[in-house]
Structure formats: C-alpha cells, structure tokens
Write the structure tokens for this entry.
Amino acid sequence: SAITVPLAAPSGGAGAAGQTAAGPITITQPLDGLHSVITEVGISIDGNEQVVPVPAPDGSGRSTIDVGDTTGSSLTITITAVSPAITIDRRFAEPVQLPASIAEITGLAIAAPTAVDVDGCHYDLLAVDGEPLGVTFGSDAFAALLRGEAVDVGLCDGAPLVLGPGTHRLTSTANSTGVQVDQVVLRSGFETTGTPRPGRPSVEVERTRTSRQVTVGPCPDGCWVILGEGYNQAWTATDAAGADLGAPTQIDGGFNGWWLEPSDQARPITMQWSPQRGLTIALIVAFTAVLGCIALAVGSWRRRSTASAPRQLVADPPLLALVADRHGHATAAATAGGLIVISALVIDPRWGLLAVVPAVLTVLLRRPALLGWCAAPITATFGLWV
C-alpha cells in the first residue's frame, strides 16, 4: 500500500525554491490486534527512494521515522514490511494475514488543496472511446457529495451525447478523483410516436399444496404466465380444455414460464406438480405394506400361541421329524433370500445389504415371522422418507 501527499511550499529560508524539507515523520497505526504492525516503509520524495525501518510503536501506536534532511514537493510512503498478525478464515479454516494500516501521518507540511470549480465542467470522471466526457455538479450537488450522499449529475450544458453506429466503450476514472461513478443511464434522444403498449393483464391465483389455479385476464398481444417458485420441468400447465401448454420455459434465470397465445377473453390455467401422483402412490403402498407386515407378524404369533396349548403328544417317526426340520430351515432360507432380493430390486441395492441382518437372524432362529416385525418399522421409515 502507498500514500502520496503534496508538500507545501516553504514559508522561507529552508530548501530550494518550491520545495519543503521533509524532516521527521510520525505515523500512527492501530494496535487493536486486528492489523499487522508495520516494521519498514519506503520513502520516495520526488522520485528519490529510500527504505527506512519503523521503530516499535508506543502505547498510542505512534512511531517516528527520520528521513534525513531531504527536501521535495511530493512524498510517497509505501509499506514494505510488517510483523504479521494471523487469523483463521471462518469459511475455509485457513490462516490469513491481517492487513496493515496507517491511521494518521504527522510532521509533514502538506499543501492545501486547490480550489474546486463547483459550477465548472469536469472532464476527469467519464470517457467515451478514450475521449473525456464533461459532467457538471452544481453547488447543491457538490455540497451533497461532501456529506457523502449520492447525487444525479448531467452532461455539461445539457448537450446530448451523439454516438455513431458500432461498438463504443464507456469508462469511468477509478480512485483518483474522490468521486465514484455508480451508474450511467443512456436514453435515446428520439421521441417515441408509437401506440403505448397495453398494461399487464390481471391475474387471480388459487393455491393448493401441489397445484396453482391461475385466471389470466385478456392479453390481446399474447403474454407469459410465470410461476415464480423455481424452475423445474416437473411442473406442467394446462388450459381450460385440458390441453397441455408444453414444457416450461426458463424465465428470468430461475422461474417457469408458459407462453399464452393472444386472446381477448380471460382464461384459467392450471399448473400441477407432476411427481406428486407417484409420491402419493408410494405413500399408499408403503402404508399398506406396513399393515401387511404387522398382520403377518401378529397372525404368526397367534398361531404359535394356539399351537403351544396343552395337547396329547405323539412321537413322530424319526424320518418324518428329520424332514420337518429341513423344511423349517428351507422355509427360513427362502424367506430370507426373498427379503434380500426384493429389498434390492424394489427399493435400492443398498437396502438389500441392510436386509442381510434380519435375513441371517431368520435363518439362524428359523422364525420367518421375525421378518414381519423387522419389516414393519423399516417400511414405515421408508414411507415417511418418501
């Protein structure tokens, strides 16, 4: 960073004509922990440069620099070295060096600013194709600028800016005049003689969770109906006869729009969120599956309770008992395999991996009803997530 100041003309004796002795310079820098501390500066007086160490600041942040018996008309101070203060960036968590700052410079005989011609024409703010463009402030606007307010200015004498065909470059002067040009408005100098465009048609909207019913007033030249809820091709639009208006067009960078042909009559337009039907069916299927799982689990439990009632025990032949045991293992294995396959195909391959846990337990315990108790909360969770 560099600071350049003009030096005042001598009041007598010291230095050559038109020059002032620079002498010692005192700089004040903030000691708030939010800035790095300056340890070295470069001093340039009329192009003669030297690097000067900056003593450690005192309690008030002041350091005095000795630049010798140098004279000149302009002095530039450049920060060349600092004792860095580091902070951690809150977004990227990276160490960032804090900037250095000079709050005040004393010990210099700074030249008084030249008088400003308030009512004159200023050619140092704008240029067109490299040629300065004169603007005027006026005393009231200039006073507002001094208060830090924004003002509207015009070209000198109100003369129009005449531009020929082709490309033109409009530039503003940056950081050298003290005035920031925020906006330039270009208007055609020709008066319009055409018929004014008709106003925007009236619109009435009725909303539900998944649809928008819009009644658009007459638009003789055609018009756009815009759904300002984020562009998504899943939105559909139909007219009163149920005819599809086609895929939405992206309007203003992020909204859904459909073009309506010219009409002198008001017409209703229905905009529908098309994925909702599939989501509703998925919720119904998931809820039905939960009820089915609960019914299977409860029915199996009731059958086991009935089977456990006291009855006369009859020993079966060993061969039949062995077949019955294999049949239990086969049933449990088939049920467990079906759970894994159905979970992977119907829901998601990752759900097939999740189904391995209850499947293994089913095979080990030979209790297929266990899947009903496990499937009920899993299916309910999936249904709520959908």
Q: What stands out?
A: The chain has four domains: 2-106, 118-157, 203-275, 326-385. The mean pLDDT is 77. The two ends are 58 Å apart (CA to CA). The first strand starts at residue 2 and ends at 6.
